What we know:
- This protein is α+β, with helices and mostly antiparallel strands.
- The protein is built from nine helices and four strands; from the N terminus they run H-E-H-E-H-H-E-H-E-H-H-H-H.
- The protein has a four-stranded antiparallel β-sheet with strand order 1-2-4-3, with helices on both faces.
- The longest helix has 22 residues, at 222-243.
- The chain is globular.
- The mean pLDDT is 93.
Amino acid sequence: MTKLSNDDFTQGEHWLERRGFNLRAVLDVCAFPRDLAAAWDQTHIPRIPGQRLVLLGMGGSALWDWMSTQDLSDDADPFDGVSRCAALEVAERFWGDPTPRLLYPGDALIPLQQLGRWAGWSVPSPLGLDVSPIFGPWLAFRAAMLTVAALPFSERGPAVSPCDTCEDPPCIRTCPAGAVRKKEAFSRQRCLEQRLEDQAGCGIQCHSRLACPIGVKWRYPQRQLHYHGERSLRSLLAWKDASGR
């Protein structure tokens, strides 16, 4: 296991913060609860004693703002490129691990939402995506990696759901497809059909997500909303063409 000082760890934390990675967690892979352990073990990635799982995420637009100051014109997916480079650089430069195992971005289908819930970042919501009591629906996972660096484990605790006390939820009222429901699970099929039908509206911008009253001050700026929405719509259209639907 790679040893490091408190100063090294703190400097790495500050370095990540300045780049907009304002959600960070260091988790013990051998302490997962039963349901999370079962989901993780389906990936066939071993959980080795002493290893740390580092999660990096963003709440709000800080990472977008930092990226806007960089020349990323050659990167096909700037968010993934920046996140990948940041994870590998912080591990080597500050934590003394030149060969961490980067799981995300990547091909490993790790249970990101379950990990975020266990880390205390977020809780399920009617929107079909998890929300944060602080950032609302304006958070995203950006990187996950395994490292042998002896990082201190993060303090964890289950997040309190802001949805439980939301009366007459605007996310339900504003969904034109009826995909967002209070007592029933989010209807992915209705959502996809609506997005394909209304590509200039729901296709690139979710009315229900915008209506959520939690974390309004962290809402992405319009340019960022369009960036994510347009990329998501392109992926949806490619999936439709490939599936022949």
